[in-house]
Amino acid sequence: SIIYQKIPTFRTHLPNNIGVAEFHRDKDYSHSLNEINVFLPMTEAVDTNTIWAESEEGKEDFTPMNAKYGEFYIWNGASLLHGNKTNSSEQTRISIDFRFMPYSKYEDNDKVSVGNQTKMTIGEYFTLLK
Q: Which residues contact 67 (CB under 8 A, 6 or more apart)?
């Protein structure tokens, strides 16, 4: 059984803009270390219009998650520092990201999502898939 993010995050990364405000680790925003991130671009995501992440926690050796339409990344956004650069391309990135984890790793908690103020529990932020 797994639990997954009930409402995925829809993102647009416009030219000459930043997709998220700051480089961060999801664990700094109430996310569990057991969560697994999925980055699913709906457009080409390369260079400055994609996510940049370190390869190991604390290494800060940022590289882009380059992906063509139809490709995706499964990665550890809870622990790896990541963010966006100013999109210097002429292409808007459109992407979806969401999180999941094995149900066996889920722990009840009183944390709240920073983005939408949803409780980080099954039935609120997460849905259980048996």
A: 39, 41, 44, 45, 46, 50, 73
